[in-house]
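ok trying this again, last paste got cut off
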Amino acid sequence: MHEPHRRTAFKYLPFAILVTLLLCCAGAKAEQDDAFARVQKILARTPLIDGHNDLPWQYRARYGNRLSRMDIADDLTQLERPTHTDLARLRQGMLGGQFWSVYIPIDTYGGIPGDTASVLKQIDVVYRLVERYPDDLEIALTAADVRRVHASGKIASMMGIEGGHAIEDSLAVLRMLYQLGARYMTLTHSDALRWADSATDEPRHGGLTPFGKEVVREMNRLGMLVDLSHVSAEVMHDALNIAEAPVIFSHSSVRTLVAHPRNVPDDVLDRLPENDGVVMVTFFPSYVSEELRQFWLARNIERARLNTLYPYDPTKAAELLRDWQDANPPPNSTLIQVANHIDYIKDRIGVEYIGLGGDYDGMPPGPRGLEDVRGYPNLFIELLKRGYSDEDIAAIAGENVLRVMEKAEATAKRLQQERPPSDFLIEDLDGEEVSMVEGH
């Protein structure tokens, strides 16, 4: 029998089935529209605050920090290498507050000379962005600033230092970076420092050194949030042992679901309620999907094998690695998996300790449904479908982070009455030999 043409297949369905299908589609769309309207209403009251966006790094890496070369008022999806961020997409994503990462690379254990000058240039990028787009962005230094800027219809712009190598082992530099507007510092990045271990480097100290602990204490005295993304689990515990204010994880997910060392283990999660801190769940694909993490692990093993086989022919090794990846395509990460990380934290310690830290423009395209900064409403709609209340969504979006900021500010006010700025040098606490490390 001749099969009906696809475009006319509906007329061969029984009328009752066709009506049911149409009603289901209409019902699903109405439910989606209702959920979107709920998200809009929530985010009109509570600023959606993201913990980590690397747009300033894109200006440095692509254009040597020349803002004139890339206009975020344009549609940057049309670039040959699209960014994850521009003003229109920030508005579509309903962002109310953004911690812009003032990231600089670290290449070796201990850091490299000149880090402070580099981070100053990235701070300058943020200030110039705000000056360039005054109708959309405004600097925020306190939780009250964030609420005020959000109420004005702008995106509150804050800064986070990604990696303690930026302070060049100096509490004086730490204080000056705070004065310039930095409101959190990730204690390490990918490599260990002379005072703290990284999650992705070999252990050097077994956690924080005495000077590293003094860095945490001075950050608390200033009111600068202690960020424990990127650090080893031992550093997480050391920081929680001495922190006098809530900590944050600006862009980390759950290690039980994805066994990446960048994620937060259960024994650290279990301590967070006592500290009153917050895990800002990241969207970085290989921190979200265990299958994808396993893929990259296998790919790295294969690359090492090929480089060993062809040490004098990198072109051949690269060609064979492409062949391997063609035969072993990477799996996709998804918004559903990100929501699973949020579920896990909520079920284990409570919704009060969850935020969001996308890591946009510092990672590959985000998970399906969260490919760029437009995706946040999609995530909240998924959480509503899972039974989260409007109050839960508000907490995750921004209220939890604002609570942490307010408590850090109150702690700083108290500590500044109790003790002066620390005048310790790293040599005083960790020994004279630290000054003999090559390059310093």
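PB: full thing came through this time. The first strand starts at residue 48 and ends at 53.
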